Amino acid sequence: MILDGTIDLNAPIEKAWEFLIDINKFSTCLPGIDSVTQIDATRFDGVISATVGPISGKFNFRSTIVESKPPEQMVVKTEGTDSVTKSMVNADMTVDLRRVSDTTSQMDYKADVKIKGRLGILGDMVLRATATLILQEFTKRLHQGLGAQG
Predict the structure, then answer these.
(1) Which of 16, 42, 45, 68 is the most buried if burial means most Cβ atoms within 10 Å?
(2) DSSP bridge partners of 93
(3) For residues 50 and 53, what is the distance between their CA atoms, to the nearest angstrom?
(4) What letters, b where the CB count within 10 A reaches 16 and e where it falls short, cover 110-126?
(5) Overall pTM surpassing 0.85 (yes/no)
(6) What confidence tens digit (pLDDT) does each residue in 104-115 have?
């Protein structure tokens, strides 16, 4: 499943970049995040609760920044396993930041998400609807987080 889009940010590109690479700040934008631990400069582990249709689970995941061109582009690979259904998720995401003005920027994202197991059986339509809701909440929280930085 491919998820992509653009988010307008009321923050300069440098401020947006700093927020995105600070896992403690960024993780506050992720709906369902239970915990996150920085391993080193490019890797972090976490646990996220997710509900897709009638199935709920907790994914233990590891994300790795595989490519970084500050403050313009980041490529992240995430792998995780659900502790309940044993479903597996693999996601490759590219984030591109563009300067719009001295005080605003845009974030383009593209994620290729593959889910195998019981959660994957639910089908693309249910997964896409759930992802859309999560992205809407993420966008709201990202705007709040960047605004709170001042």
Answers:
(1) 16
(2) 76, 111
(3) 10
(4) ebebebeeebbebeeee
(5) yes
(6) 999 999 999 998
